[in-house]
Amino acid sequence: MAIIVDRDSKIIIQGITGTTGRTFAERMSKYYDTLVGGVTPGKGGSDVFGVPVFNFVHEAVEKVGANTSLVAVPAKFVKDAVMEAVDAGIKTIWAYTDKVPVHDAMEMIQYAKLHGVRLIGPNSAGVVSPGKASAAEHNEEQLPLIEGNVGIISKSGSLSYEVINLIYEGGFGFSTVICIGGDPILGTSCRDVLKLFKNDEETKAIVIIGEIGGTDEIDCVDVIEDIKKPIIAYISGHTAPEKKKMGHAGAIVGGAAESAKGKSEILKRAGVEVVETIEEIPKALEYLK
User: Fold this and answer.
1) Residue 176 reports pLDDT greater than 50
2) Residue 123 — left, alpha, or beta (φ > 0 → left; ψ -120 to 50 → alpha)?
3) pTM score, two decimals?
4) Of residues 258 and 134, which shows the higher confidence score?
5) Hey, which bits of 126-230 come out as E strands?
6) Would you call 248 a catalytic residue per the annotation?
């Protein structure tokens, strides 16, 4: 089954003619048939790697049935791009761009929620269901993305690369990998994804890759306690200096519960198997074999 993106996804890229958009289009069209087009105002009628380019999102919805969008435009245009996609009827949006102004993020996230649209990001590496569909920076040229039954939720795109490789080397594949993003305000939370994985028959175990700062990983304790599937978690930043931002805009500790130690202790009490290093994750999954 997988979650969020699957074989029924019809994906467009907003900003497809830009450098980032073209890179994603090349990868996605090479490994999946779910990329159906792109949008760049003024470039309608052209094509990129065999998929048509439209001037407006509503044209892509009407002509190729688009239901999912990858937003790869400069930060100052992200809010408008997201709202255009929402207004056109797109139901799943991935905002890849980082450095989106906080006020813009607040507006577009609320707008998406009011219209029943799932927004992933901003500053997110996206979501991929191996063998089915990809709306993600993660790609088969760089990663062993094979179908399996391990679901991954990560705030960090970079760290998830390492974890994917380790889990693959341990003999496992993936149902869906989603990076929700590292900004303080996000469209899709860890809690949201856990609810989806809970009901996904293909997912037999869940791996959470968290980090210092914010409360996203611990705001879902009640959901975790209601999930019967094993959950493994790694929280990065155990040696991070206090009150220092570490990489992501949201990775700054505001209190004891937001530290790596604090989050780890809370998750352990909820029944999560918390590991000290990412190398321990495959061992925690051995029961699946």
Assistant:
1) yes
2) left
3) 0.92
4) 134
5) 126-129, 133-136, 147-154, 174-179, 205-211
6) yes
